[in-house]
Amino acid sequence: MNQIAELLKNNSYPGRGIIVGKSKDGKHAVTAYFIMGRSENSRNRVFVTDGDGIRTEAYDPSKLSDPSLIIYAPVRVLGNKTVVTNGDQTDTVYDFLKNGKTFEEALRTREFEPDAPNFTPRISAELHVDGGAFSYKMSILKSAMGNGESCQRFFYEYGEPVAGEGHFIHTYKCDGTPIPSFYGEPELVEVNEDIDCFTNTLWTSLNEDNKVSLFVRYISLEDGTWETRMVNKNQ
Known about the structure:
Elements: H1 4-9, E1 17-22, E2 28-36, H2 40-43, E3 45-50, E4 53-58, E5 75-78, E6 81-85, H3 89-98, H4 103-107, E7 122-130, E8 133-144, E9 147-158, E10 165-170, E11 187-190, H5 195-205, E12 211-220, E13 226-232
Antiparallel strand pairs: 1-2, 1-10, 2-12, 3-4, 5-6, 6-7, 7-8, 8-9, 10-11, 12-13
């Protein structure tokens, strides 16, 4: 099992990342989402609360040059399901679930982002907390080794999460030009039982120059209530 701090400290640009797992004490479903940026447009963002979820918005609206891939709702909640993604596919998944369809059906209608030559992957997760039971799914939609003519869709299902363990998936394997997409299975990571400790570990481990915002939520398996933390570099 990997230490999330080491994975982040040793990677200057994982891009955007999703972590999902169960807290070490077994009492909470845990998810975290962070964004990073290299351009002024990408760095000019903050997370703000939007109903039960969050959305991104421009920190300085006068510097917003292209909102198409950077302004979206990363987190939305539908009953006992929480959807976390790195783009507007959050809305696609939410709408499909609302209409009785599945996470997988929703994402089969989408593909990677149209930002050649990077073709940034779309990463997504769905958490399901119901009567003390917890399960989650993750997905990545990516190009075929940088070939924008071919979309590869990968799905991962975790039906019985182990206390203290989670999975981490991110858009980029590392920094580069073009930026190489993440590949392989989501990385197994340790999940702390304390939300503030976990939030601090994630935020302080992200590259200081490139980190932008972080969201962390702990959902009680007992009653479905949650605690949330948000950190924005732009204050």
